[in-house]
Design goal:
single chain, 164 residues, alpha+beta, 4 strands
Length: 164
């Protein structure tokens, strides 16, 4: 894909990813409370507002505010800009890898926006599971990041040839 055909695809995925994430976070902020859990589908899905000062599943939340700012805002911002540059200009990037990178970039930028707008934390509100087997609390941006990562892994391993 050439750069001119990549831009509309990247922009559409980015806008859908960030838009759906920010709208659902706004709904969560206005209708949910941190200490109140809303349970649905036999407790398979839970909604609860959480302020995540760390990364995925709270990773790094215990770091000092300065380190969190450096890693989760500045560091992530640099990685996301590098990813965008690669997605726009890499010569051998197929459509599935471009979609994956757009999902990761959109999710990462939406969470980065939260960190800047809310003083260092990301709004999380979803939790799924059965019984005691549950995910951590996450958001739509995290889902985009995970789907993008899965596509990259799938594409990479699908293209790998077995030895012999």
């Amino acid at each position: 894909m050439n750069t001119n055909s990549r831009v509309p695809l990247l922009a559409a995925i980015f806008l859908a990813d960030v838009g759906s994430d920010q709208i659902t976070k706004w709904i969560a902020r206005t209708h949910l409370e941190e200490d109140v859990v809303h349970s649905f589908l036999g407790d398979t899905v839970r909604l609860q507002l959480a302020h995540n000062y760390g990364a995925f599943l709270g990773l790094g939340a215990s770091l000092s505010q300065g380190w969190r700012q450096a890693i989760w805002s500045v560091g992530v911002g640099c990685v996301l800009l590098a990813m965008l540059g690669y997605a726009l200009f890499a010569r051998s990037l197929d459509r599935s890898m471009l979609i994956a990178m757009a999902l990761i970039f959109g999710g990462g930028m939406s969470n980065l926006y939260d960190r800047v707008a809310y003083g260092g934390y990301v709004i999380d509100f979803l939790n799924v599971g059965i019984g005691s087997l549950r995910t951590g609390i996450f958001n739509i941006a995290d889902m985009g990041i995970m789907v993008g990562a899965f596509i990259i892994l799938w594409t990479t391993f699908r293209g790998a040839k077995a030895p012999g």
